[in-house]
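Structural biology now treats backbone shape like a language. To illustrate, our science desk offers a sequence and the tokens encoding its fold:
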Amino acid sequence: MDELLIIGLFILIVSFNTQRSTDKRLRVIEHKIDSLLKNNGIFFHNNINVSKEVLTAITLGKKLTAIRLYRKDTGASLKEAHGIINRLAAKTASLLRQSN
């Protein structure tokens, strides 16, 4: 019984150390990606799920182009696309102000 407990504790300690090491490597990779994005002027946010082209058009203030691209990508109606692009434009502007 004691042998099983010792083996279990050993496995637990090894897995904990492996998880810590993995978490540290992941933080380093995320930091590098964030630096690359920032240095190249690329805006990214987890809550904005549109293509790069749509996000670029929104960022450049080209809402009509963004609506057209969004409709092409998703098949949304003009009304739906217009509403979504307007909300994304407002959210993007807000997020850009926060990041600067």
Summary: The CA atoms of residues 20 and 26 lie 10 Å apart. DSSP finds four helices and no strands in the chain. The mean pLDDT is 84.
